[in-house]
Write a structure and sequence with these properties.
A hairpin with a 4-residue loop joins strand 2 and strand 3 (109-116). Helix content is 25%, strand content 29%. The radius of gyration is 18 Å and the shape is globular. It has helices spanning 26-39, 58-68, 70-73, 78-81, 129-148; strands at residues 45-47, 97-104, 109-116, 151-160, 169-180, 183-192, 198-208. A seven-stranded antiparallel beta sheet has the order 1-2-3-5-6-7-4. It is α+β, with helices and mostly antiparallel strands. It contains five helices and seven strands. It has two domains: 26-51 and 86-208, Hotdog Thioesterase (Thiol Ester Dehydrase, Chain A, Roll), CATH 3.10.129.10; 52-85, no CATH class. Bound molecules: dodecyl-COA (DCC). Dodecyl-COA (DCC) binds at residues 53-54, 137-138, 141-142, 145, 152-155, 181-183, 205, 207, 209-210, 213, 215. It is a peripheral membrane protein. InterPro entries: HotDog_dom_sf, THEM4/THEM5_acyl-CoA_thioest, Thioestr_dom. It is an enzyme of class 3 (hydrolase). Its EC number is 3.1.2.2.
Length: 215
Amino acid sequence: MRPLAGSYLPEFFHEDHSLPKPSWSKDMRLLFDQFMKKCEDGSWIHLPSYNYTLFQRSQDISAFIHAYLPTASKLINEEKLLQAKIFTRNFEDGLGFEYVMFYNDVEKRVVCVFEGGPYLQGMPGCLHGGAIATMIDATVGTSAMIAEGIVMTANLNINFKRPVPLCSVVLINSQLDKIEGRKLFISCNVQSVDEKTLYTEATSLFIKLDPEKQV
Ligand SMILES: CCCCCCCCCCCC(=O)SCCNC(=O)CCNC(=O)[C@H](O)C(C)(C)COP(=O)(O)OP(=O)(O)OC[C@H]1O[C@@H](n2cnc3c(N)ncnc32)[C@H](O)[C@@H]1OP(=O)(O)O
């Protein structure tokens, strides 16, 4: 399996969607700048984000699925796979998921600065719970992938404690708690920018995929 490499991907997939855009709010931009400052001494790393999955060439996606997900591969339409994109990165700017992640290797933490746009409404004026769950999964998933490579979410347990106001900026803080064999335990919370409101708490279990197993 070839590793993910920027030079290996077609030019139009190189756009890093985690960089500031005119649609970002002042809070989002401020937090981005604060974290970029923390990156200067190397303690934090800015994680780029693209709108493709691990591989873009159809034969590589196919090889991945056959190696890691042989059961699913029987039901997958390979032609449709050519259109596959990460769904959090395919809304128009400012309308859906706007986010940027940073990683601290010493603390084993991934922090996501997230602003959920107007197309993510659930209850009036509030962010849809599924959108929050998606971003929690993406944040803890990133943490798991950094630690162990090819992983899948086995369990995601979420307590929604306060509604998240639509179009507000939140901090998603994740922490790799422990690794036991193929199991990764990662906890997470979602807080307001001023850290005064705890919106959501979550725990998760990720499993490192074993290509010897028929999943
Ligand atoms: C560039 C782009 C970046 C983009 C980066 C963005 C990252 C996004 C991340 C998104 C990730 C997803 O949404 S993934 C999509 C949602 N998830 C899925 O579809 C996964 C579906 N489930 C599965 O395929 C399977 O259950 C697996 C792979 C998770 C595990 O299967 P397996 O490999 O056969 O493992 P198995 O033997 O069953 O379990 C291994 C050990 O884990 C335990 N275990 C397994 N499941 C559970 C469970 N739910 N709760 C407790 N414990 C469990 C077992 O008891 C066992 O413990 P012991 O006996 O060893 O002690």
